[in-house]
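#help-structures
NK: newbie question, is this the right format to request a structure? protein is diguanylate cyclase
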Amino acid sequence: MSARVLVVDDVEANVRLLEAKLTIEYFDVLTCQDGQTALTLAAESQPDLILLDVMMPGMDGFETCRRLKAQAETRHIPVVLVTALDGREDRIRGLEAGADDFLTKPIDDVILFARVRSLTRLKQVMDELREREESSRRMGVGGDGARRLRAEGGRVLIVDDNERQAAVIAEALAREHRVTVETDPDKALAAIKGPLDLIIVNVAAEAFDGLRVVALSKSGDARRAPILAVVEPTERARMVKALELGATDILPRPIDVEELSARARTQIRRKRYSDFLREKLDNSLEMAVTDALTGLHNRRYMAGQLQALVNRAVHGGSSVAVLLMDIDHFKSVNDSFGHDAGDEVLTEFAVRLATNVRAVDLPCRMGGEEFVVVMPGAALEDAQRVAERIRRDVAAAPFRIMGGRESLSITISIGVAATTGEGDTPHLLLKRADEGVYEAKAGGRNKVIAKAA
């Protein structure tokens, strides 16, 4: 795995040692020797991970970390504090400053590389989500900026056969989160299939294989939930294996409840940030293929689906039909009652359209008062019957507008076409349907005209 790592330490020998170790493992290494330079370099170079010494003159590691996490350009970059201090107060202070983890001097190479690889994997996933969300925003389909992400009220699953230890963890977290404890491995794996914000696993459990629980929790509905692995600090091999299998953080025993609470808040906040980005991306993708006014598919989506269906039809697959429809005298609605009333008509028409087509059909708004229904597997006669049903439903009852104060009689003209075999294209299909609409309007409107090839 190639990743960019920023090493920050005021001692030249420490910088060179870490730089050499990381370079041998093919990491791209940047270095600096003070907090202010680290802030500038991080914003400009966007490293995948920052190894930050705590004891530096001027701005120490805690303050540097706090500022990194306060800036929009750098808050997503994982920060590992490197310290000769091993006291609980320093770990809690670092977690509250936003640190993602700690390494204690002298640095164990195995733990160093396990940490670096675990956190850079996470960073790359987050980067991909952020880049996609930013691309959507530039295209004008992104949502608002990030809301304030809470770290309370998380859904936490504790998987531990040590009832006393599980009770300590549960009591500490129950003040802020919704906690479930499972001591049975089968029940635990079943619970992992549900939505969770944090999973805490005793990887040294005696009644089940805790490492297997870590591995299996990375699949299913809870695969995005961070995993906090409870392990003895002396069990280096087990700690490294847990990280390799997908654990995102380590909770050393004996458990310090304040450190536990701080680590849980850090992991849940990060999980919610990831969820927020995915939610924005999903919404942006939906907006890209959906007509904002009617909620139907838009022209872009229709074109892609129709192309695939016609290609299949001309190569021996089932036929596809289209209904092209235009609301009669729609301009007069806007001219007489205003564009808000016109929007009400379009919205109500979309509802009637969607309730009169098959579940497999794709009702779409082409633009203005023009709509299309793509009908996979439909012959010309089948499509004509559906079109007639839509026409009758639209004409049967008046459309209520202006908050129900006015009603309008609305009719539509519909052209119907279906694929004819080899040589047909979406353009030709829509052209035949458009000819049907033109003929229906020329013949007095409120008609369905089917156009064979």
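mod (FA): yep, format's fine, and the tokens are attached above. The longest strand covers residues 320-327.
NK: thank you!
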